[in-house]
Amino acid sequence: MHLVDAGVDTGGVLRQARGKPGPGDTISSYTLRQAAFSRDICVDAVSDALAGKLATSDPGLPSKQWYHPTIWFYLWTGAKSGVW
Q1: pLDDT tens, position by position, for the chain (84 residues)?
Q2: d(CA 19, CA 64)
Q3: Which of 67, 18, 65, 15 is nearest to 43 (CA)?
Q4: 3-state DSSP call for residue 13?
Q5: What is the predicted pLDDT for the residue at 82?
Q6: Across the chain, which distance is largest between two alpha carbons, in Å?
Q7: What share of the chain is helix, strand, coil (3-state, %, to 5)?
Q8: CA nearest neighbour of 31 among 23, 21, 39, 40
Q9: Mind giving me the DSSP string for 46-82?
Q10: Is the whole model's pTM more than 0.70, yes or no?
């Protein structure tokens, strides 16, 4: 989660969360798992904003415009990594 500014993914990072697919995950359930493990960081960031205590970090990575993967890339990656 990051602050939005005039650039493309250049706002300061507020929070980060990572998750891994579970043994029974599918293309549908993994999307729900991502939403579930990112919920806490969203709640924390909103709480910080309301308290006036937003703090950002700079991961030191270059700005990059991200696009959703094509369906073929998505399916290949899921099959290769064992998501389905």
Answers
A1: 888 888 777 778 888 888 888 888 887 888 888 888 889 999 999 999 999 998 988 777 776 666 777 889 888 888 888 876
A2: 21
A3: 15
A4: strand
A5: 81
A6: 44
A7: 40, 5, 55
A8: 21
A9: HHHHHTT----B---PPP----PPPHHHHHHHHHHHT
A10: no
Residue 83 burial by Cβ neighbours in a 10 Å radius (0-12, 13-18, 19+): middle
- Distances, alpha carbon 17 to alpha carbons 38, 39, 70, 71, 72, in Å: 6, 9, 24, 24, 26
What is residue 52's predicted lDDT score, i.e. its pLDDT? 94
Question: Going by C-beta distance under 8 Å and a sequence separation of 6 or more, which residues neighbour residue 5?
Answer: 11
